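Changelog entry

Holo records now carry the ligand SMILES as an explicit input line rather than a separate metadata file. Below, a converted record for coenzyme A, shown in the new format.
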Amino acid sequence: MPVERFSADHPLWDSYLTHLDRVDMARWVVDMDGCAKPDIICLGAIVEDSVAGHITLRVQDMRVPVPGRDDAQTTIPGADGLPLRETFINTFAVDVEYRRQGHGRALQTAAIALTKALGCYQIRSWTPFETPVNYATMIALGYAVHPALTTTEHGRTLGGVYFIQTV
Ligand SMILES: CC(C)(COP(=O)(O)OP(=O)(O)OC[C@H]1O[C@@H](n2cnc3c(N)ncnc32)[C@H](O)[C@@H]1OP(=O)(O)O)[C@@H](O)C(=O)NCCC(=O)NCCS
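Structure line, unchanged by the conversion:
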């Protein structure tokens, strides 16, 4: 089940963009020029020379929020004293007709391997409560489940779950 890293110079990049449009997630991944947004890592699942699924991630320092100061967060030192880093899942989807064929699992497995290769401590995502299939997938993959509230960029507070796996 081939999963490859994608960027604008990949021969199937147009197919990647078309898939992102089909699953309505392009706005989270690409800029106006059709290139991946800065710091977004793109992986894609290929079926018969076209893209049938994707996961995108970014690498970030793990930070502890400081109450009342949104802009001031402290990093968490790892065992070597350097700030702990993680990958955070930005988007994840498989085209409807290719679901339940193992592509989601293959994408997650590749993302976990990449997280480890990048020297990160963990992989994490946040998902709203209204996506039970994603919950089933993440739990099947062994992720820990941390129920939590989050505030969207528009100031709405939503209930959902952080899925976390140390690598
Ligand atoms: C979540 C999603 C990416 C899973 O992709 P997928 O290719 O169907 O997943 P897989 O076939 O690899 O399934 C892996 C495991 O997850 C679980 N799972 C997946 N879909 C499931 C479903 N509909 N019901 C129950 N369990 C399910 C199963 O345990 C499955 O293993 P199995 O098939 O051996 O039983 C896909 O359903 C999807 O695109 N959903 C809509 C977008 C979305 O919710 N994205 C995440 C939030 S942004």
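Spot-checked after migration. The CA atoms of residues 31 and 76 lie 31 Å apart. The pocket of coenzyme A is lined by residues 91-94, 99-105, 127, 131, 133-134, 136-137, 140 (CB under 6 Å).
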